TrEMBL record:
Domain Peptidase M1 membrane alanine aminopeptidase: 316-413
Pfam families, per the entry: Peptidase_M1 (PF01433)
UniProt name for this protein: Leukotriene A-4 hydrolase/aminopeptidase
InterPro entries: Peptidase_M1_dom, Peptidase_M4/M1_CTD_sf
Top-level division of the source organism's lineage: Bacteria
Source organism (scientific name): Sphingobacterium spiritivorum (Flavobacterium spiritivorum)
Record's keyword terms, sorted: Aminopeptidase, Hydrolase, Protease
Entry's Gene Ontology molecular function annotations: aminopeptidase activity; metallopeptidase activity; zinc ion binding
Lipoprotein keyword on record: no
SUPFAM superfamilies: Metalloproteases ('zincins'), catalytic domain (SSF55486)
Residue stretches spanning the membrane: none
Amino acid sequence: MAVLIDSSFIMKKLYFLFLIALLCTNAFAQRKGYWDQKVDYTMVIDIKEKSYQYDGKMKLLYTNNSGQELKKVYFHLYFNAFQPGSMMDYRLANIADPDPRMTSNIGTKEKPVYQSRIATLKPDQIGYQKIKSLTQDGAGTTYKVDGTILEVTLAKAIQPNSSTTFDMIWEAQVPEQIRRSGRNSKEGVELSMTQWYPKMAQFDEFGWHLDEYVAREFIAPFGNFDVTINIDKDYVIGGSGALQNPDQVKGYVKNAKVQSTKGKASWRFKAENIHDFAWAADKQFLVNHARSKGGVDVYLVYKPGAKTTESWTRAMEYTTAFFDFCGSKFGAYPWSTYTVVQGGDGGMEYGTTTLVTGERSLESLVGVIYHEAAHSWYQHLFGINETVDEWFDEGFTSYIEELAFQHLFKKNQSYA
């Protein structure tokens, strides 16, 4: 997530924080008995473009690496937050400094009265994720939904150091774009798909992390994703992981023979060892691709126009250089691809991808790309719990961003 910093004031403090972060990381790496749960998602979704709804099927292999027997598991249903009366809606109306992107002032400038944009959503504008069926190793489960949390009572307990398979069918509606995820952003991106699927909650030494979604940060177990998206053949998608069939869809290969069934193309992405999967889609998206010297395939996916084309075209050289620079300073980027997609309402990091607003100057665009891409080390490489240790994540990321920006964009060699 992008933050504003005053480089002249906090550079030394960030360097000190960086040293602390390294010490903490070393201590964490040396801790004995550490374990983490593992998830392997296989998902197929069918987009209904006119209604902004979709049908989803998921097969989830869940590996319990803890020493505990699990009789229940939990999923996050993030889209449910975008409904009148949700905890997110209530919070926006009752805190002193609500996010202006998510609220309207229905009072005066002198005496503001904030109303969340969620409060006025109509039934065909809200977000939801509705579970239609959920089985465990072929046996039925019982489950209940409380806000954005799905609680599942298992057909059989998951024993320590064992795995189980969940099969889920669900349907969803993509909300109006209010925060991060949604349809029809202010810049006209049709689908910004983040927190879009029922997501297994994190279970670790502190127990289950079941924070109600109120537009804050995330934590989740690492795993592999195999995602197929069936959507109108005229759309172009950018997102997490590596596209498996670029020659069968629009935008990635010159003179590609787009394959479709009943007017829909199937996009298949795979990603390994990440803890979130995000994507965006629009019929006007243009895809630029280049490979860094270190072998990272970088994709910039955006809507061409007077406010975007020049800066996004020029940003590519700075983005590939960023991965080479950071690889030499902080350790190799461990994945094969990174995709920057125009979407959402600011800048937010996800597994091997980021969604950023695109109508920016070159300097602004490079800055937000550097910040979000820096999260590939902190938070996505180490899986820091952003909900409680945001200082660790954002501090280290801001240090990387400033160091790379000064060296690569400002050409200030003292920051080498």
